[in-house]
Design goal:
16% strand; Helix Hairpins; 5-stranded antiparallel beta sheet; Beta-Lactamase; 12 strands; 3 domains; alpha+beta; Heat Shock Protein 90; single chain
């Protein structure tokens, strides 16, 4: 898979493009060299044959047929390796002179044509078959003359050049491909570091920064700019968070006093209308206090980060079962079907109070946004070695384009704005899941239905006693304390 992902990178594709351009240039250069070299050697062979033909024609004009036969025999005698080929025959193909015993099949063509043929036993050739090239024409008096050259060495040289070109192209492509892969791998590693850090930051680890190599290359400059941007974003976010947390903290006390005064007024007034108004005011004050308390809880969780120092083994199955007992009566009031599929053996490492808050918020939301006679399903199971807590309902659901936003502070789906709430419950759920190194998935419970419902799936790491013991040993060794084997 890593190799396939490497091949899909833009860096490798760019290197591949350069490789194609470079290989094409090399191919054109080698093709030109081959064309010039092979063409030169072929032309040189043809010129040699033409020169011999010219010499024989001169001898024929000066000495006649007998002189032509004599000069052919002399040339054959001087060339025992038969590099030059001669054949003089009558019009009925009876041999008069030459080192060939017969006409090649390829010679059945018009006068003056060039032929390529094979020297073999049918032509009186005693050695292994070889390639030859010749030209034929008619001599006055009906005689036929063939003059040629053994070109087997020339063809062998051409084959060697072609093989060298093919190997050169193959080696060029292999080196270019290897170079492109190495360059892509180096670049991809740098980009993957940036991607990994970015994913951690998107998951809420705002303290992460992109590492640099100190080379001040373009990747280092990009990393430094991104780090400075992150520092600025964190500074602005901390400022906004500090203001909102300060407002929530500062207003909680006067709101509490106001609420207590309204409650005292509620007990003192004897007018029904005034008592009703005071009761509404107390309810509004309670809602405001719940909002501020939720904001402060989320702020504390986000400040706490992902520390696992005070996390303990917690039976997620039993915890969810306790929460279901608490909310089952509320579900019965709405005549809802409340189904439980809980494995009591599922254990996670976490903060029991925070986990109970997360579980309670999700079950409460499912009941709140599911109409009467609806369906609620709560599951706790082990899947792929992880602990799964899931709450599904048959309520109004969440549009696909809003599923990624429901964990933001104060965000409320348009369909639910008329129902009571402050839009902080799922933000609290997200913060608790992050502290426990968990992930949250949101899906339709009944896809395509009029009431698609909602299925919220929280995946948490399963408790591993051995892993916890290793952490404990490492912590005690670092602190210089005796090892504690208790869990």
């Amino acid at each position: 898979m890593k190799l396939l992902s490497q091949l899909r990178t833009s860096t490798f594709q760019l290197a591949l493009l350069y490789m194609v351009v470079f290989a094409t240039s090399v191919f054109l250069l080698l093709a030109f060299i081959y064309w010039r070299t092979a063409g030169f050697m072929t032309a040189q062979t043809d010129e040699t044959i033409e020169a011999e033909i010219a010499g024989l024609a001169e001898q024929y004009r000066g000495r006649g047929v007998n002189g032509l036969i004599t000069i052919i025999r002399e040339r054959v005698a001087r060339d025992p390796n038969a590099k030059s080929l001669y054949l003089l025959t009558t019009d009925e193909y009876l041999k008069l002179a030459g080192n060939l015993n017969g006409w090649p099949v390829e010679s059945q063509s018009r006068e003056g044509s060039w032929i390529n043929f094979t020297l073999d036993e049918s032509l009186g050739w005693t050695g292994p078959p070889r390639q030859a090239r010749a030209r034929i024409f008619e001599v006055q008096g009906g005689l036929r003359l063939l003059v040629g050259r053994d070109v087997d060495d020339l063809n062998t040289l051409k084959a060697l050049i072609e093989t060298a070109i093919n190997w050169g192209m193959g080696i060029t492509l292999a080196l270019a491909l290897l170079g492109g892969f190495m360059m892509s791998r180096s670049t991809t590693r740098r980009i993957e570091v940036i991607n990994n850090t970015s994913r951690k930051i998107m998951n809420g680890h705002l303290s992460q920064r992109i590492p640099t190599r100190g080379t001040q290359d373009d990747f280092d400059q990009l990393a430094e700019n991104l780090n400075q941007m992150l520092d600025r974003i964190v500074y602005l976010m901390e400022g906004i968070r500090h203001v909102s947390d300060s407002i929530a903290h500062d207003l909680r006390t006067p709101l509490t006093r106001l609420r207590n005064q309204l409650e005292t007024t509620l007990m003192l007034v004897d007018n029904d209308e005034a008592r009703d108004q005071a009761a509404k005011a107390v309810a509004e004050a309670d809602q405001l206090l719940a909002t501020f308390n939720a904001l402060l809880r989320i702020a504390r969780l986000e400040t706490r980060g992902n520390t696992t120092a005070d996390l303990r083994p917690v039976s997620l199955g039993l915890l969810v079962r306790d929460a279901c007992e608490l909310y089952e009566a509320v579900s019965e009031d709405k005549f809802q079907t409340f189904t439980q599929d809980i494995d009591d053996e599922v254990t996670v490492e976490g903060d029991r109070d925070l986990l109970f808050q997360m579980v309670s918020n999700l079950i409460d939301n499912a009941i709140k946004y599911t109409p009467e006679e609806g369906e609620i399903v709560v599951r706790v199971v082990i899947e792929s070695g992880a602990a799964i807590f899931e709450v599904a309902d048959s309520g109004i659901g969440v549009p696909d384009d809003e599923k990624g936003q429901i964990f933001q502070r104060f965000y409320r789906v348009g369909k639910s704005r008329s129902l009571p709430g402050n839009g902080l419950g799922l933000s609290l759920v997200s913060a608790v899941a992050e502290i426990h190194q968990g992930t949250i998935g949101v899906f339709d419970h009944h896809p395509g239905a009029g009431h698609p419902g909602l299925r919220v799936r929280v995946t948490l790491p399963r408790y591993n006693p051995q892993k916890r013991r290793v952490k404990s040993v490492a912590a005690t060794a670092e602190a210089g304390q005796p090892e504690d084997y208790s869990v």
